[in-house]
Amino acid sequence: MNAIRPLGELLRDWRERRGLSQSNLAELAATSARHMSFIETGRSQPSRAMLIRLADRLEVPPRERNALMRAAGWSALHPERCLRDDPALAQAREAVGLVLRGHEPYPALAMDRHWNLLARNGASGALYDDGIAAFLLRPPINLLRLSLHPQGLAPRILNLGPWRAQLLQRLRRQADFAADPVLDALHAELSDYPGPASDTVASTGFAMPMRLRAPCGVLSFVSVTTLFKAPVDLALCELAIETLLPADRATAQSLRSAWLSRRGPQPRWQPEPPPCPQPEPNSKSDSEPDRDSG
After folding, report:
1. Rounded to an integer, what distance in angstroms lies between the CA atom of residue 16 and that of residue 277?
2. Alpha-carbon separation of residue 145 from 62, 87, 142, 151, 206 (angstroms)
3. What is the DSSP secondary-structure string of 189-228?
4. CB 3: neighbour CB atoms within 10 A?
5. 285, exposed or middle or buried, with CB in 10 Å at 0-12, 13-18, 19+?
6. How far apart are the C-alpha atoms of 46 and 103, rounded to whole Å?
7. Residue 111: helix, strand or coil by DSSP?
8. Cβ of 42: how many Cβ atoms within 10 Å?
9. Helix, strand, or coil here: 31?
10. What's the pLDDT tens digit per position in 102-112?
11. pLDDT digit string (tens) for 59-86?
């Protein structure tokens, strides 16, 4: 288990990442710069309410909020349960399945914060059925790696240059915002893949499509991401459902015809998921009174 870093050090890192001075953050959190300084140096311990307020102002992602709370000795804000098999999340799994099934005959995929595939609908077979290297399809399947690897979808993406550029831009923003070393490493890996040199995210119409060569012809997709609103569990905080909509009538007709000719399997969860995180013990009661005077 990794050692828990001091709370003040974690807060200082997030403050500097957001480009704020102690005075700026103190003003945003309705406290004093002196009190903020004492928290960062460990001379003052913030209450649970103050720590939540600081995390809100710093826009700290849910998993890292849990780390802040544990560093201060408080219980985690978000329960860390496993979406695939925890009985408490059965209703959430059914909700995800409804979204995936409801999107058929068009592809839809559920993924975690690192773009690893969690579940997919039957129509998503249109993305996997042809010419993908077996090692890219072994769980956990990373959807960005699958898209951009030269043995994945990349040779079939007709507008690979601009499509690759916008995926890398999106990943870079996500990695910077979340301060996630896994996303940093993924960005470095994908950036090293061979591909057309393109720094321009070109678009036509209302959004840039991905144009994919398939046995039935060229399929053109635009992507829409769905998130849970006000989720409680960490697994749902970090879940995203990527739905691919047909960008033209020919794609819509091809997908409907393929779906009628072979109904795909029901939405299913990946059989060999990465291990779910184990929550760490907490040392303070959530009911401990607020101690802040700053």
Report:
1. 27
2. 25, 31, 5, 10, 26
3. HHHTS-----------TTSPPEEEEETTEEEEEEEEEE--
4. 5
5. exposed
6. 46
7. strand
8. 11
9. coil
10. 999 999 999 99
11. 999 999 999 999 999 999 999 999 988 9
Distance CA 135, CA 143 (A): 13
Helix, strand or coil, per DSSP, at residue 115? coil
117-120 and 217-226 beta bridge pairing: unpaired
Please give the backbone phi and psi of residue 5, each rounded to the nearest 5 degrees, phi first. Answer: -75, 155
The DSSP element (H or E) to which 23 belongs, if any, is helix 22-28
By the 8 A CB rule, do 177 and 113 touch?
no
Structure tokens that stand for 200 in this block? 């321009």
Q: Phi, psi (5° rounding) for residue 176?
A: -65, -40
Is the Cβ–Cβ distance between 107 and 129 less than 8 Å?
no
Token pair of 137 as six digits: 């399809």
Distance, CA of 259 to CA of 268 (rounded, Å) = 17
Task: Name residue 44's amino acid.
Answer: S
pLDDT digits (tens, 9 = 90+) for 167-183: 999 999 999 999 999 99
In which order are the strands placed within the sheet that holds 108-111?
A: 210-214, 217-226, 240-246, 108-111, 117-120, 268-269
- The length of the chain is 294
Contacts for 116 with CB less than 8 Å, ≥ 6 apart = 140, 141, 142, 143, 270, 274
**CA-based angle 163:169:173, to the nearest 5?**
150
